[in-house]
């Protein structure tokens, strides 16, 4: 009789690595350049956040979404009490928590962000959008910070959150059509729509006009200011983490330029950054880091 093999931590991390490779080629391209132990930790954090996101977006109805999130929250409760669920993501995450000073409250913050999507309400103002983005993406920045930096002071935590918000706003601007078409969600704040004279009906029909472009650029400008702030903080990160972090930042920022290049079509096109552009960004960031080191 063939003996059952015991699960190995390496296989658990491979499972998490496959999740990020499948769902986010940009993040994988950036963070796979980290030292192996740090890269594995990023993969495990990503796998948790993806699991939380899928619990909502892959569910067919409200009841299933609620059940899925409650189940995941119960697993998290057990996990943090020392009863690690027998699943690759949880075993890998347990190893990460043992090796890094991860703030466990951010895991709950991520779930709270997903809960906002269950009973979704269109943001009224930009502050509402930033609050939502802080939950679903700022929390990711906070979770990754101890892996990428030895400085966990308040300013660094705030900066990590802001970078997450910039990336979430980028996601929203890229996925305007998909979010409305597949999930019935409009993340653009009502105040921003009103400011630029663009209606929810126009958004639902995929109308791209000067008002839409002005509205889109308004939010893109907010994201780009946050990217600039994060970039200024790069010297506070571990030397080996600076290139991966700049790659993730700059590749994500380039998504905004892809939308512009495609004449603001966020309705029928899936705007993404090509491998050739990623390689070009990588070479530029390597030069930038070298100039920092030479100062």
TrEMBL record:
SUPFAM superfamilies for this protein: Terpenoid synthases
Pathway linked to the protein: Carotenoid biosynthesis; staphyloxanthin biosynthesis; staphyloxanthin from farnesyl diphosphate: step 1/5
CDD domains recorded: Trans_IPPS_HH
Known EC number: 2.5.1.96
Function as written in the Swiss-Prot or TrEMBL entry: Involved in the biosynthesis of the yellow-orange carotenoid staphyloxanthin, which plays a role in the virulence via its protective function against oxidative stress. Catalyzes the head-to-head condensation of two molecules of farnesyl diphosphate (FPP) into the colorless C(30) carotenoid 4,4'-diapophytoene (dehydrosqualene).
Family per record: Belongs to the phytoene/squalene synthase family. CrtM subfamily.
Protein's name in the database: 4,4'-diapophytoene synthase
Swiss-Prot/TrEMBL keywords: Carotenoid biosynthesis, Transferase
Top-level lineage group: Bacteria
Principal EC category: transferase
Record PROSITE patterns: SQUALEN_PHYTOEN_SYN_2 (PS01045)
Reaction it catalyzes: 2 (2E,6E)-farnesyl diphosphate = 15-cis-4,4'-diapophytoene + 2 diphosphate
Pfam families assigned to the protein according to its UniProt record, in alphabetical order: SQS_PSY
Record has Transferase as a keyword: yes
């Amino acid at each position: 009789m063939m003996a059952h093999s015991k699960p190995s931590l390496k296989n658990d991390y491979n499972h998490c690595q496959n999740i990020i490779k499948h769902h986010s080629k940009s993040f994988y391209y950036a963070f796979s350049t980290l030292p192996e132990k740090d890269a594995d930790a990023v993969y495990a954090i990503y796998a948790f956040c993806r699991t939380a996101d899928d619990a909502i977006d892959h569910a067919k109805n409200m009841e299933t979404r609620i059940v899925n999130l409650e189940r995941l929250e119960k697993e998290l409760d057990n996990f943090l009490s020392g009863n690690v669920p027998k699943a690759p993501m949880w075993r890998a995450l347990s190893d990460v928590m043992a090796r890094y000073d991860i703030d466990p409250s951010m895991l709950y913050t991520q779930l709270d962000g997903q809960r906002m999507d269950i009973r979704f309400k269109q943001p009224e103002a930009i502050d509402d959008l930033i609050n939502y983005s802080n939950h679903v993406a700022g929390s990711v920045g906070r979770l990754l910070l101890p892996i990428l930096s030895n400085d966990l002071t308040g300013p660094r935590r705030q900066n990590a959150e802001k970078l997450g918000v910039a990336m979430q706003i980028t996601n929203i601007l890229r996925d305007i059509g998909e979010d409305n078409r597949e999930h019935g969600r409009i993340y653009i704040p009502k105040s921003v729509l009103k400011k630029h004279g663009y209606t929810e009906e126009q958004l639902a029909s995929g109308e791209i006009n000067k008002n839409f472009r002005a509205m889109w650029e308004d939010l893109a400008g907010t994201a780009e200011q946050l990217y600039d702030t994060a970039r200024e903080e790069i010297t506070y990160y571990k030397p080996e983490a600076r290139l991966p972090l700049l790659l993730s930042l700059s590749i994500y920022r380039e998504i905004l330029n892809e939308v512009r290049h495609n004449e603001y079509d966020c309705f029928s096109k899936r705007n993404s950054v090509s491998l050739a552009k990623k390689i070009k960004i990588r070479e530029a960031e390597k030069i930038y880091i070298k100039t920092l080191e030479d100062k």
